[in-house]
C-alpha cells in the first residue's frame, strides 16, 4: 500500500527560476538563468539548499553538488502560455492556461480609462507599462497635487493602481480597485489582475507599503485546493496565495509583510494541528529584487532564506511533506524588468523519506505538484500532472 502524508507544506520562492526553458526565446528570453546568473555576478552561498540537492538539479556556481542529496530533487517545465504569477500558480494546482492572458503594451484603451475615471471620480495618470517604483517617482508629485491615480501595467496582464496613502485613503483605493476589477472582467479587456499599489513618503523617496492587494480572476476550473476544501481538509494560504486564486479553495488566509514573515507564519502554522495543505508564497525575491534588476538584493534574499532551512526542516514532522518550488523566473541580470521563462527547482523532503533523496528528473509540467497533493489526500486528480508519490523512496 502506498504511504501518505497527513500534511503538505508548499513553499513557492516567487520567481526563483533555474535556467531557460526550451521555449524561452518565444518569450523574448535569451539564455536567462535567475539563480545561475545571480551566483555568477555576486556569488551565492546556499549551503542548505546545496545539501538538499540544488546543484544536482543544475550546477549553481559556488554550490557543489551533494554526494547524497538530502531531498528528492528535480526541476519542472511550465507548459502554460505565460510566465506570470497567476499562470504559474494555477499550473501548480493543476490548471493549464493555453491562451495567453491579454496584455497592454500600449496602455489600456481610452474608453476603458474614461469609464474608470467617471466611476471613481478621479483622473488617471500614466496608463502605460512601467516599473512600479519608477512610475511613482515619475508621477508621484503630480498625483499628490491633482489627486489623480497612477495606472500602469507590465508584460503581465495587470491593471495596477498606485496612490499615496495620504492622498487616497486605503479603503478608497481598495474600492477603486474593485471598480477596476468589475470593468476589466469584461471579455473585451480580460485583465487577470487588478493590483492596489499604495505608497508613502515624499517625492524622491517614495516607498511602497505592504498594503498591496491583488484582485485576480477566478480560476476557470476547480483547483486542487478547491478539491481539498470540498473534502473538508485545510487549505491554508500564506502571503499572496489567496489573492492569486481569488480566494477559491482557501479555508484560511494570512497576509505577510516579507519573506521572513512568510517563513515565520508557515512555521507557526506547522506547529498547529492543521490537516491538508499550507501553501506560502515568498514574493520579495520577485517584487523587491527581480523586477528591480537587483542581483545583490536577490542574492542576499536567497541566502537569508537558505539560513532558515534548518529551522524549517526541524519543524516539518514525520507525517509532513515539504515541497519547495517556484512559479517562473525573474533573472535580475537580464534586460527589461519582467519575468523570465525558466524551469523551476523542485525539492521534496520529509523526515519519513530516505535520507538520501532520489532524482525526480525533469518534470513536464508544474502540475505534477498539484497531482501529488491530490493523490496524497485522495481527492480528484487534476486534469494535468503526474503524482510524484510512486517515485518517493521511504525510510
Ligand atoms: O514593477 P512592479 O510594480 O513591482 O510590478 C510587477 O509586479 C506585477 C505583479 O506581480 C508584475 O506584473 C510587475 O509589473
Ligand atoms: Mn510570481
Ligand atoms: Mn512579478
UniProtKB/TrEMBL annotation:
Checking SUPFAM superfamilies in the record gives: Alkaline phosphatase-like, DeoB insert domain-like
**Which Gene Ontology cellular-component terms appear in the entry?**
cytosol
Binding locations of Mn(2+) 2: 286, 291, 339
Compartments where found: Cytoplasm
Which InterPro entries does this UniProt record tie to the protein?
A: Alkaline_phosphatase_core_sf, DeoB, Metalloenzyme, Phosphopentomutase_DeoB_cap_sf
From the UniProt record, give one GO term of the biological process aspect.
metabolic compound salvage
**Listed GO MF terms:** magnesium ion binding; manganese ion binding; phosphopentomutase activity
What residues form the membrane-spanning segments? none
Q: In which pathway does it act?
A: Carbohydrate degradation; 2-deoxy-D-ribose 1-phosphate degradation; D-glyceraldehyde 3-phosphate and acetaldehyde from 2-deoxy-alpha-D-ribose 1-phosphate: step 1/2
Organism superkingdom: Bacteria
Q: Where does Mn(2+) 1 bind?
A: 14, 327-328
Keywords from the named record: Cytoplasm, Isomerase, Manganese, Metal-binding
Q: Which reaction does it catalyse?
A: alpha-D-ribose 1-phosphate = D-ribose 5-phosphate; 2-deoxy-alpha-D-ribose 1-phosphate = 2-deoxy-D-ribose 5-phosphate
Instruction: Give the Enzyme Commission number.
Output: 5.4.2.7
Query: Looking at its record, which EC class is this enzyme?
Result: isomerase
This protein's cofactor list reads: Mn(2+)
Purpose of the protein: Isomerase that catalyzes the conversion of deoxy-ribose 1-phosphate (dRib-1-P) and ribose 1-phosphate (Rib-1-P) to deoxy-ribose 5-phosphate (dRib-5-P) and ribose 5-phosphate (Rib-5-P), respectively.
Family of this protein: Belongs to the phosphopentomutase family.
Which NCBIfam families does the entry link to?
A: deoB, PRK05362.1
Protein name in UniProt: Phosphopentomutase
Q: Which gene encodes it?
A: deoB
Amino acid at each position: 500500500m502506498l504511504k501518505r502524508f497527513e500534511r503538505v507544506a508548499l513553499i513557492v520562492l516567487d520567481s526563483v527560476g533555474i535556467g531557460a526553458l526550451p521555449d524561452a526565446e518565444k518569450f523574448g528570453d535569451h539564455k536567462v538563468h535567475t539563480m545561475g546568473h545571480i551566483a555568477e555576478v555576486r556569488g551565492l552561498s546556499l549551503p542548505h539548499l546545496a545539501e538538499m540537492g540544488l546543484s544536482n538539479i543544475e550546477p549553481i556556481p559556488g554550490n557543489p553538488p551533494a554526494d547524497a542529496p538530502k531531498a528528492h530533487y528535480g526541476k519542472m517545465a511550465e507548459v502554460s502560455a505565460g510566465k506570470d504569477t497567476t499562470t504559474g500558480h494555477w499550473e501548480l494546482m493543476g490548471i493549464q492556461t493555453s491562451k495567453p492572458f491579454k496584455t497592454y503594451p500600449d496602455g489600456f484603451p481610452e474608453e476603458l480609462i474614461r469609464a474608470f475615471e467617471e466611476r471613481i471620480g478621479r483622473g488617471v495618470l500614466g496608463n502605460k507599462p512601467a516599473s512600479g517604483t519608477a512610475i511613482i517617482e515619475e508621477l508621484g508629485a503630480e498625483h499628490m497635487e491633482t489627486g489623480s491615480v497612477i495606472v500602469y501595467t507590465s508584460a503581465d496582464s495587470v491593471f495596477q493602481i498606485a496612490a499615496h496613502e495620504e492622498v487616497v485613503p486605503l479603503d478608497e483605493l481598495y474600492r477603486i480597485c474593485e471598480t477596476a476589477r468589475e470593468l476589466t472582467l469584461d471579455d473585451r479587456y480580460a485583465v487577470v489582475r487588478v493590483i492596489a499599489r499604495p505608497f508613502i513618503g515624499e517625492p524622491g523617496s517614495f516607498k511602497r507599503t505592504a498594503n498591496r492587494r491583488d484582485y485576480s480572476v477566478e480560476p476557470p476550473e476547480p483547483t486542487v485546493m478547491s478539491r481539498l476544501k470540498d473534502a473538508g481538509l485545510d487549505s491554508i494560504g500564506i502571503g499572496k496565495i489567496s489573492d492569486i486564486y481569488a480566494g477559491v479553495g482557501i479555508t484560511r488566509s494570512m497576509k505577510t509583510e516579507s519573506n521572513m514573515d512568510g517563513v515565520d507564519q508557515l512555521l507557526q502554522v506547522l506547529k498547529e494541528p492543521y490537516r491538508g495543505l499550507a501553501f506560502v508564497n515568498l514574493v520579495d525575491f520577485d517584487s523587491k529584487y527581480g523586477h528591480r534588476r537587483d542581483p545583490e538584493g536577490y542574492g542576499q534574499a536567497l541566502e537569508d532564506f537558505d539560513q532558515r532551512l534548518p529551522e524549517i526542516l526541524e519543524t516539518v514532522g514525520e507525517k509532513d511533506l515539504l515541497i519547495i518550488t517556484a512559479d517562473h523566473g525573474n533573472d535580475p541580470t537580464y534586460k527589461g524588468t519582467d519575468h523570465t521563462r525558466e524551469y523551476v527547482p523542485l525539492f521534496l523532503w520529509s523526515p519519513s523519506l530516505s535520507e538520501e533523496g532520489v532524482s525526480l528528473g525533469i518534470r513536464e509540467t508544474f502540475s505534477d505538484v498539484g497531482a501529488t497533493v491530490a493523490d496524497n489526500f485522495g481527492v480528484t486528480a487534476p486534469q494535468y500532472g503526474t503524482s510524484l508519490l510512486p517515485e518517493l523512496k521511504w525510510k
